[in-house]
Write a structure and sequence with these properties.
One of its GO terms (cellular component) is membrane. By secondary structure, the protein is α+β, with helices and mostly antiparallel strands. Helices cover about 55% and strands about 10% of the residues.
Length: about 525
């Protein structure tokens, strides 16, 4: 080898060595120095937790605790054994550690450091914290990208603030109340279907898996209210989004563990394929609307039109990102806007089927406040009259306490910040397990596992010792933007359905709530449905 060749080889090997050293330094920083800094900052303030192992953190212990609990607590129960204390089967390690280390503790999943918060006083500080420094954890939101894109749910910082500015006003009360007619029309279509099935039955009673029908109903409402299209036009989108949701639902998503795979799995390929199909369907919806606007204009000012106009006039967004921005937020609204409300309505009817006296009380209130069928339409159009449905509101609030669709609330400190007396280090992931919080006997009383809507007789502020610990729609600046829309839809749908039908549990019903991004009934919600006499 010539001297010149030797020098070139030495330079190449030096570059390789520098590259290897830089990778090793980065690994040391991410796997050791950064976690040690975060844990040390919390330790000095008296925060404790299970001791992590190097690289793996507490993942092995989490899996061990989960596997030892799953067979005991997650067996489906029949009609006679419906219990609301299914919470121990969900992330039992979180509850076990809370008993050991208190309501605030730390734990690790790989290089990710977590701060579990179940203390109402600290939750109050979280609720009051409205800066952009508290965002969605990147490690959690990244795997959800095929489902949610880079939409307002996943975004952080200024990008999140910009997207919220566009979307949030469309869910203010002055806009939402204009959607009541669509909600009523869509619900009446489901009512007619159920009435036809009852008339065809010999005994005037039918066994219906109501969560499936309510999902279709909610999808139709969100399609028409936000996109100007009916569910029949968008059913392919909803079906593929549901499949995508199921494909992405796996516990390892929550561990935040490093992924050393280099080749895509069959599941990865399926996710990518579904994402492309959903994008193609949504893009057709967008292009059809754009063509309609260009050819003859449109008087529709639904959410899709607002997103299109905002994206077209934006000086903050590069033109090549416009289409993706539109698709991402359409996909998010289809998923978050329809699925969560349908689940809330389904769980509420299941609870009322178990509690016929409360079902009767809600129905009596609807007739007392709104009158007969002819008057019900006018009643539902009047926001002041709807506010008089206090018993229905109490039932919805209690249902959201026991069976709220949201299960995990996760945030990431994007910089060093202060929460009350606690100094929170940058990079920590703040976790709250909502079902456990909503069943804390110290806050809700010894009957915390029972369905008692009277807790909310004087509103949320008087429902428990620490009302800030009631968070079915999240907390802080990232409180669910669709909360007003969801509550109004629940009142409209449940008022119309309960005025026409009575419900009891089907003998085929198996009670088995499961976590699949949201709280789902694994075997569906099967109810016996009769016409109200």
């Amino acid at each position: 080898m010539t001297e010149e060749g030797f020098q070139v080889a030495m330079i190449c090997w030096s570059l390789v060595l520098i590259g290897i050293i830089s990778v090793l330094m980065r690994l040391v920083k991410e796997m050791w120095l950064k976690p040690a800094r975060i844990r040390s900052a919390l330790w000095r303030q008296g925060i404790r937790g299970p001791a992590p192992s190097f690289i793996f953190g507490n993942v092995s212990e989490m899996k061990k605790i989960q596997s030892s609990n799953i067979n005991i607590n997650q067996k489906p129960s029949g009609v006679k054994r419906v219990q609301h204390n299914w919470v121990p089967s969900f992330f039992p390690y979180l509850q076990q550690w809370e008993q050991q280390y208190g309501q605030v503790y730390m734990y690790s999943t790989g290089s990710k450091q977590h701060l579990y918060v179940g203390d109402p006083k600290l939750l109050r500080e979280l609720k009051l914290h409205n800066s952009l420094d508290l965002g969605r954890p990147t490690y959690l939101s990244k795997p959800m990208q095929p489902l949610l894109g880079d939409s307002v749910i996943r975004a952080n910082g200024e990008e999140w603030a910009y997207q919220k500015k566009i979307i949030a006003p469309e869910f203010f009360l002055d806009k939402v109340k204009g959607m009541v007619g669509l909600m009523e029309e869509s619900t009446k279509a489901i009512i007619k279907t159920w009435e036809s099935r009852i008339l065809e039955s010999e005994e005037g009673i039918v066994d219906i898996t109501i969560d499936e029908d309510l999902k279709s109903l909610s999808a139709d409402i969100i399609s028409r209210a936000c996109f100007g299209s009916s569910y029949s036009q968008g059913n392919q989108i909803f079906a593929k989004i549901a499949t995508l949701q199921d494909t992405l639902s796996h516990p390892s998503l929550l561990f935040g563990f490093l992924n050393f795979r280099f080749l895509p799995t069959e599941n990865d390929k399926k996710v990518r394929s579904l994402k492309k199909e959903v994008d193609a369907l949504l893009l057709k919806l967008v292009r059809d609307r754009q063509a309609e606007s260009q050819s003859c204009g449109t008087s529709e000012k639904d959410l899709l039109q607002m997103i299109l106009e905002s994206a077209a006039s934006s000086t903050e967004m590069p033109s090549h990102k416009t289409d993706q921005f539109i698709l991402d937020n359409c996909r998010t609204i289809y998923f978050a806007g329809s699925e969560t409300t349908a689940l809330a309505a389904s769980w509420t009817l299941m609870l009322l089927a178990l509690q016929p006296e409360w079902q009767d009380r809600v129905r009596a209130e609807i007739f007392e406040v709104c009158g007969d069928d002819d008057q019900l339409h006018h009643c539902l159009q009047d926001m002041d009259t709807l506010r008089k449905l206090k018993t229905l509101t109490m039932v919805i609030q209690e249902s959201l306490r026991l069976y709220g669709p949201g299960v995990i609330m996760a945030r990431e400190a994007l910089t060093n910040m202060k929460l009350g007396d606690l100094d929170v280090p940058e990079g920590i992931h703040i976790w709250t397990f909502i079902p456990a919080l909503h069943r804390d006997p110290e806050n809700w009383g010894s009957d915390a596992d029972e369905f008692k809507p009277e807790r909310f007789e004087n509103g949320v502020s008087e429902s428990c010792k620490y009302p800030q610990a009631y968070m079915p729609f999240g907390y802080g600046s990232r409180l669910c933007m669709g909360q007003t829309f969801a509550m109004l839809q629940l009142k409209i749908v449940l008022s119309l359905i309960l005025s026409k039908f009575s419900f009891s549990l089907s003998p085929n019903y198996q009670h088995c709530p499961v976590y699949k991004i949201l709280l789902l009934p694994q075997h569906g919600i099967k109810l016996l449905v009769r016409r109200v006499q």
